[in-house]
Write a structure and sequence with these properties.
heterodimer; A: 411 residues; 14 helices; B: 225 residues; alpha/beta; 7 helices; globular
């Protein structure tokens, strides 16, 4: 063993208690870094899960024209325009040729799932209770593939909708407010005044309470019948892609081919993205603060060690050790503390994540607190931990290297 | 005889708390194998002179040549390597590294030098400890030895690299009379039998009177040598 390393090692092992305290402070910092980032990562995943349980990455629909063309285009300064009760006269509503659009969407390599829907506002009636809500006519198989609808079923099965034309599945809050349960009947009333009775086949709960209080699903065939639409009619086509962060790239390309409005999820929901960014920043700030505190711990202990060993440093210098040797000796001690603490911290971090994952908490499709195990958190924690250790260890080491042996030895 | 140390017109001033000239032009030479004592009252500048000779204090005017190499104006890192090879130290308070074993303390300067393999260094260290009558203690921690034993271990450490000069800063200042005699006898033998050059600063007149040569300092100047 190199002489400097031997001295560093002897210093480290002769004060076990100090070593343990220093290692613990690093260990705690690293484990908290891993845990905080894993926790926030887990929360973000859970939020994405909730978000995308009802919302697709890309939605295709028939948009209202949002600018009104001027009805009288040529005016002179001495003309006054009077236009009363201007209104849209729309000849096409929804998407008439849904199959064609679905085929186009499936042609994109990044697209993972496509489903068609008919979404309309209707009244749900049971006796004298009348509640307005959203009715979704769904293509059951593709809907389940895209949103995992069957995971959210409290009672009954979503696939039963395919077996009965008059079946309906209600959100838990909606079922409660109109007092129905599985097996009961509920009457739907459309905006056109059509009434039809449906049998409740199941109840779902997505976790987003606004949805649970207002949404009901029937099969898309029944919906076409109810709203008297043709066999390829849909009001929305929902598309999922491989990486939802790149949805707008795909939607941009698709918009050029499809004659309807193509909208990526970010366009209408920028708050979702910014809140996940904010959570990430928060986690970074907290873990950086913890690591800094750990750094001060190392700094303090190394500083104490240097102060205690002034005489030894002087004697080493008298014997022929130069400033670099002294920095080597003391920096190596900090590095050892950092590496041991880092490895222990990764162990403790994993343990904390494991324990927190056992805490029951119902959110989205999770039954306990969501914490992510991510390799990148471990690498970053170790990397930052080492940087903090090196800085915290270098300052006392530099101080040690600048000790003037004459001053110390002469007393 | 060969000249191992040559000191030319050393002037040294302190600036704190006020300007004060401690050494006012000191000149002398030391030959190989000489056992020299530097004496003088406290404040005469004898310790200051020793630390300048040791190359640890570089803030002075004048020039010093040790073993034919000029050490004045050389960079600290080079001087550290020079000390390692050419100068052995024995201090008033033994100054061993308390957490290291006796044998490790003795071996440290040689391991730092790295010129000889470890087992040969170890053999030599054991030989020195035996010669200085502290054999059998080598695996003990240095802090567990008595003062006299620690000082002899320190002498062994000073000798391990076969230095050009051994420098002692009141090497017996902290020892009882029996151990003082012991340390003196060791120095005497080293100088006479092995031709080891030794320069010590001392308060002890008995010690000084038995040396080959006494340099007396008064108010920063040599009054007799």
């Amino acid at each position: 063993m190199n002489t400097n390393n031997k001295i560093a090692w002897t210093h480290l092992t002769s004060k076990v208690q100090q070593l343990v305290v220093a290692v613990l402070s690093v260990m705690f910092g690293i484990s908290m870094y891993i845990f905080m980032n894993g926790f926030v990562g887990g929360i973000n995943t859970a939020f994405d899960d909730i978000t995308f349980s009802t919302m697709a990455h890309i939605r295709v629909y028939n948009d209202m024209p949002n600018d009104e063309p001027s009805l009288i285009s040529h005016t002179t300064n001495d003309t006054i325009q009077f236009i009363h009760n201007a209104r849209h006269i729309k000849y096409t509503e929804g998407i008439k040729n849904a199959q064609e659009i679905i085929q186009i969407a499936k042609g994109f390599a990044q697209v993972t799932a496509v489903t068609e829907q008919i979404n309309q506002n209707v009244f749900f009636q049971n006796g004298i209770t009348k509640v307005s809500g959203n009715l979704s006519g769904i293509d059951v198989e593709n809907e389940d593939k895209m949103f995992g609808t069957s995971k959210y079923m409290l009672k009954g099965h979503i696939y039963d909708l395919e077996k009965r034309n008059d079946g309906i599945v209600l959100g838990s809050g909606l079922a409660q407010s109109i007092c129905v349960n599985v097996g009961d009947n509920v009457t739907l009333m459309t905006a056109d005044g059509t009434k039809k009775s449906f049998k409740v086949l199941g109840i779902f709960e997505s976790g987003a309470s606004a949805t649970d209080k207002s949404k009901a699903m029937i099969s898309i065939r029944s919906a076409r019948q109810l709203f008297s639409k043709n066999a390829s009619y849909a009001s929305d086509i929902q598309i999922n892609v491989k990486d939802y962060n790149k949805a707008e790239v795909v939607s941009g390309k698709m918009a050029k081919i499809v004659p309807y409005k193509v909208e990526s999820w970010k366009e209408g929901n920028s708050q979702l993205e910014s809140s996940s960014t904010l959570r990430n920043i928060l986690a970074m700030v907290i873990s950086a603060a913890i690591l800094t505190v750990a750094g001060f711990g190392i700094y303090n202990i190394m500083n104490m060690t240097v102060n205690e060993k002034m005489r030894e440093i002087a004697i080493l210098k008298a014997m022929g050790f130069n400033g670099k040797d002294i920095v080597h000796i003391f920096l190596l001690q900090s590095l050892c503390i950092g590496v041991i603490g880092g490895i222990a911290g990764m162990g403790l971090g994993s343990l904390i994540i494991y324990i927190v994952r056992q805490i029951p908490y119902k959110i989205a499709s999770f039954t306990s607190l969501p914490v992510a195990f991510r390799l990148v958190d471990y690498i970053m924690a170790f990397f930052f931990g080492l940087i903090v250790t090196i800085i915290a260890g270098y300052l006392p080491a530099r101080k040690a290297s600048r000790v003037d042996p004459v001053e110390i030895l002469r007393g | 005889m060969k000249k191992v140390l040559s000191v030319n017109n050393i002037v040294k001033s302190f600036h704190q708390p006020e300007d004060f000239q401690v050494l006012k032009g000191v000149d002398f030479d030391v030959e190989k194998g000489e056992f020299v004592s530097i004496i003088g009252k406290s404040g005469s500048g004898k310790s200051t002179l020793l630390y300048i000779l040791s190359t640890m204090d570089t803030d002075y005017n004048g020039s010093i040549t040790i073993n034919d190499s000029n050490v004045t104006g050389v960079k600290q890192n080079k001087l550290a390597a020079f000390r390692n090879e050419h100068i052995g130290f024995v201090f008033q308070f033994h100054f061993l590294l308390p957490e290291f074993s006796v044998i490790d303390n003795v071996m440290l300067p040689a391991l730092k030098w790295g010129k000889k393999p470890k087992d040969i260094v170890r053999e030599r260290a054991l030989e020195l400890l035996k010669m200085l009558d502290v054999a059998g203690q080598e695996e003990k921690k240095a802090s567990l030895l008595s003062g006299g034993q620690q000082q002899r271990v320190a002498i062994a450490r000073a000798l391990i690299n076969e230095p050009t000069i051994i420098m002692g800063d009141e090497p017996t200042g902290n020892l009882d009379s029996k151990n003082t005699k012991n340390v003196f006898r060791i120095f005497r033998e080293l100088s006479r039998e092995q031709g080891q050059t030794i320069i010590t600063v001392t308060h002890d007149n008995d010690f000084a009177n038995n040396c080959d040569r006494v340099i007396e300092l008064k108010d920063g100047q040599i009054v007799s040598q």
